[in-house]
Design goal:
Number of helices: 4
Number of strands: 0
Helix content: 25-40%
Bound molecules: zinc ion
Order of helices and strands: HHHH
Structural class: mainly alpha
Distance between the termini: 35 Å
Shape: elongated
Strand content: under 5%
Number of domains: 2
Largest sheet: none
Length: 106
């Protein structure tokens, strides 16, 4: 690799040019780790931390709500008969979280 300012040859691990002192844009510093695919705001029903079908946990996880508050609100609404049907519909519509990849075995 070469310095983008003066063109001097650089060590692959160099962070600054040894000739002109310009910072080196290395691939490692530009790399940003991707966020987990199922915690970035998508509405999925998590496989753990669920009470019935994970609908409350799905909304809490997707929007950053407290799952306990979501459950209380849903439970109160269920008493009125409004959200019981909505819960079943959400159960059907919201996809289940994909299986998390297994941790690497040593
Ligand atoms: Zn340079």
């Amino acid at each position: 690799m070469f310095c983008t300012r003066c063109g001097s040859k650089l060590e692959p691990t160099a962070r600054f040019c040894s000739s002109c002192g310009a910072p080196v844009a290395s691939a490692s510093s530009a790399y940003a780790p991707p966020s987990p695919p199922y915690t970035d705001g998508r509405l999925v029903r998590p496989r753990n931390n669920r009470m019935i079908a994970g609908v409350c946990a799905a909304f809490a996880q997707a929007y950053g709500w407290d799952v306990a508050i979501v459950r209380i609100v849903v439970a109160v609404l269920c008493l009125t008969g409004v959200s019981a049907l909505a819960y079943v519909i959400a159960w059907i519509i919201i996809p289940e979280e994909p299986f998390a990849p297994l941790p690497p075995q040593n």
